[in-house]
Amino acid sequence: MRNRRLLYSAVLGVTGIVLAAGITTLASAEPSHQTAPVALSHPVVKGPKPTIVLVNGAWSDAASWGRVVKRLQADDYPVVAPPTALRSLSGDSAFLASFLKTVQGPIVLVGQSYGGAVITSAATDNPNVKALVYISAFAPDTGENVATLTGRFPGSHISNDPNAPIPTALSPVPVPFLTPDNKPEIDLYAKADQYRDLFLSNRVTAAVAAELAATQSPVASTALGEPSAGVPAWKKIPSWYLVSDDDHLIPPSAARFMATRAHSHIVEADTPHAAQVTNPGIVTSLIERAVAATR
């Protein structure tokens, strides 16, 4: 029963793809992080541009960045979206850290959902990473996992039964591998009939949501409960954060807590969890703001 409760709390904090739309607020750069309504303008960046590295979250894949990639490439940015294996936070972070070392020149590193936890570990001590951008994402401190962060704040739709061994929005599927400490592993899928609400807050058609649910990438339960290790990159690298006010996975209060703690430049929008899928313009503009501010 204890293991079941641990698994349940681990999955409470996980997220998939992102959405952004509507009016935004930009946080002040001052320590108070007070916000004031502004239009999220499209900054013009001249000269050589950094490589934009996009990191997907759970129940998503690199293809979820497609509309953001198209916009960034139209603005002459080099862009890469390496796949996230979703097997373990330490393994996913180590892979990304190695990948980043192959990128020449400055990098703006973008993480969505669980991908935020990955970039938080992977970017540490890499001098080429000039900015971090969190899109409805986790920004853990040392020793935290996605469950502990989400569990501090109410509002996630991951389950309507706090006593269920597996959150009601998820289906566990046994997979034929063991964790590094030789424990049996399971994959977690978001149920198709709840995918639209969880990730998209019912803002796309049922047909679009069904296609995304059918092509989702499951996450290993180990990845959700594993604590973040090492000094978080946001303590040394400037960061930007999109808070989705209609997020059904990460409660907006949890997102604000993480963004404020990281001293991020905060943009809030009336958006669901999966911002780049239906409203990639806001996501792209935030990335380009980070570029302009760190050049």
Structure summary:
The protein has 295 residues and is α/β, with parallel strands linked by helices.
Produce the secondary structure layout.
Blueprint: H1 2-11, E1 24-27, E2 35-38, E3 51-55, H2 66-74, E4 79-80, H3 89-100, E5 107-112, H4 114-122, E6 129-135, H5 146-151, E7 170-178, E8 184-190, H6 192-200, H7 206-214, E9 219-220, H8 221-225, E10 239-244, H9 252-261, E11 265-269, H10 275-278, H11 280-294
Parallel strand pairs: 3-4, 3-5, 5-6, 6-10, 10-11
Antiparallel strand pairs: 1-2, 1-11, 7-8, 8-9
Keywords: Hydrolase, Signal
Domain AB hydrolase-1: 52-280
GO molecular function: hydrolase activity
Give a description of the structure.
InterPro entries: AB_hydrolase_1 (IPR000073), AB_hydrolase_fold (IPR029058), Sec-Metab_Biosynth_Hydrolase (IPR052897). This is Alpha/beta hydrolase. Residues 1-20 form the signal peptide. Keywords: Hydrolase, Signal. With 295 residues, the protein is α/β, with parallel strands linked by helices. It has a single domain, classed as Rossmann fold. The chain contains 11 helices and 11 strands. The strands form 2 sheets. It has an 8-stranded mixed beta sheet with strand order 2-1-11-10-6-5-3-4, with helices on both faces. The protein has a 3-stranded antiparallel beta sheet with strand order 7-8-9.
